[in-house]
Structures are given as structure tokens and as C-alpha cells.
Design a protein that fits this description.
The chain is an alpha+beta fold. The chain contains four helices and eight strands. The chain has helices spanning 2-32, 37-74, 179-182, 190-256; strands spanning 82-88, 92-100, 105-115, 121-126, 132-139, 141-148, 152-160, 167-175. The strands form two sheets. Strands 1-8-3-6 form a four-stranded antiparallel beta sheet, covered by helices on one side. The chain has a four-stranded antiparallel beta sheet with strand order 2-7-4-5, with no helix packed on it. A hairpin with a 5-residue loop joins strand 4 (121-126) and strand 5 (132-139). The chain starts with a helix and ends in a 6-residue tail after the last helix.
Length: 262
């Protein structure tokens, strides 16, 4: 009986050591094994996602180039009479009104979203009779220009259809003909012409600086958001790797460590 007990304990120890060796070989094979079909599918999905992001970036570049070309053509001497920035809450519409009494009047303007996770808004402009003059949806920035032929109240509607996403929007508009278009050179002496030119240049510089500051703020917000997500993901990945490593070491050590007295 004593011999059978010793043999049984020897078989048990030998089996546990065999199990530990098999586990170690399995881990080694998992590390050295070629990528499976699931891994290839994952890589293909990642490649597809990269291509999609690249195509989206190309579309944004084309849109920016189109806006710049349109600005050069129609907004070269644009000086806004009103410039304001406001927060557009999620699932809300913001209405702005402009009374135009002198017709015909040239109306030009621009808007852009300076902050927010999803930088896209819907913009609609209607005349006093409710007829749509301008509409653009799903864009983070845009320009508009038209000639008002009806006196009355014009409505500018900004819509944010996103859930739980507030957006900071900047809006600039110019109504009516410019002073330089109404006054001829014979009505101004050289000093007044110089002052008018300086005032116009300063206003253009101020508007350009405001626009550049808002764009820089939006870009910094995007970079900070991406940086926070990368840091959080890296910390979670590191903690997960440490936990898995500790568990594997503990499990294999427990399989190999037999301290029972024979």
C-alpha cells in the first residue's frame, strides 16, 4: 500500500509537470504562430479605415480650397458690419434677424465652427416671405452672398442636430453697399481718403486676426482631445499587459511548484 501511494504521488507530480510544459509550449506557439484569418480581417479593416480617413481628409482639403477660391472671387473687399460668436447647444436652433430697409442691398457673410467634437452645422437664410435664399448642411464653415430685393426682416437659422455636443460658432455679416462705393473720389480730400483707407485696412486686419485665433483655438482643442484619448488608452493597455503577465507568472509557478512532502 505504501508503495502504491508513493507511485500515485509520483504520477501526480509528473502529470502536473507535464501540464506545465504543455502550457509553456502552447504560449510559445501562440507567440510564433502566423496571423490567422481573423487577424488578416482585422488588418484589412484597419487598412480600410485608414483609407477612409485619408479620403475624408482629401475631401476636407478640397472643400477648403473651394471656400478659398469662392472667397477670392466674391469676398475680396468684405468688411463685416456685425461680428459675433455664440454657443450653439445640442439639438437646438439659433435664429438671428437682420432688418433690411434699403433695396437693393448686397448681403455677404461667413460662418465657422471654432470648437466642438463634431464641427458641422446646418445654415438656412430666408427672406421676409419665408423663401429660402441660402442653405448648407453638414459643414463646419461656409460663406454666403446675395442681393436683397425685398425690404423686411431676413432670418439666419443655425441648427445643431448632434446629441450632447455643444458648438462655438462665429458669424460675420455685411449688409448694404460699402461707403467707398457710395462716395466718389471727388467728395473726399486726400486726408480723408487716407484715413478711410487706414480704417478699412485696420478692420480687415482685426477680422483676420479674430478668424485666425478662432481657428487656432479649434485646432488646439482637437489636438488636446486626441492627446487625452491616446494617454488614457496607453494607460489602460499598460495596466492590462501587467495584469496578464502577473497572472501568467503566478499560474505557471503554481503548476511547477509542488511542496507536498512525500
Amino acid at each position: 500500500a505504501e508503495y502504491m501511494g508513493i507511485s500515485f504521488r509520483f504520477i501526480m507530480v509528473f502529470s502536473r509537470k507535464q501540464l506545465a510544459c504543455i502550457g509553456a509550449l502552447w504560449l510559445l506557439l501562440c507567440l510564433l504562430a502566423p496571423p490567422t484569418l481573423a487577424d488578416e480581417d482585422s488588418q484589412e479593416e484597419e487598412h480600410t479605415g485608414t483609407n477612409s480617413r485619408k479620403m475624408h481628409s482629401d475631401d476636407d482639403d478640397d472643400e477648403d480650397e473651394g471656400i478659398l477660391a469662392e472667397w477670392e472671387e466674391h469676398m475680396q473687399d468684405f468688411v463685416p458690419t456685425d461680428l459675433l460668436s455664440f454657443e450653439l447647444a445640442s439639438r437646438t436652433d439659433e435664429l438671428l434677424f437682420e432688418e433690411i430697409l434699403t433695396i437693393p442691398s448686397k448681403v455677404r457673410g461667413a460662418y465657422f465652427v471654432s470648437s466642438g467634437e463634431e464641427q458641422d452645422v446646418d445654415v438656412t437664410i430666408t427672406d421676409p416671405y419665408g423663401k429660402t435664399i441660402f442653405h448648407k448642411s453638414g459643414a463646419k464653415e461656409g460663406i454666403f452672398y446675395f442681393t436683397a430685393t425685398t425690404a423686411g426682416r431676413y432670418t439666419f437659422r443655425f441648427s445643431n442636430d448632434r446629441w450632447l455636443t455643444n458648438k462655438q460658432l462665429t458669424f460675420a455679416v455685411s449688409v448694404g453697399n460699402q461707403t467707398t462705393e457710395l462716395l466718389g473720389s471727388g467728395h473726399l480730400n486726400p486726408v480723408e481718403e487716407s484715413l478711410n483707407h487706414i480704417d478699412r485696412a485696420l478692420r480687415e486686419i482685426q477680422n483676420e486676426q479674430t478668424y485666425m485665433w478662432s481657428r487656432e483655438k479649434a485646432h488646439m482643442h482637437t489636438v488636446e482631445s486626441v492627446d487625452r484619448r491616446v494617454v488614457v488608452f496607453s494607460v489602460i493597455e499598460a495596466v492590462a499587459m501587467v495584469c496578464i503577465t502577473v497572472w501568467q507568472v503566478y499560474y505557471i509557478k503554481r503548476l511547477l511548484d509542488d511542496r507536498r512532502i512525500v
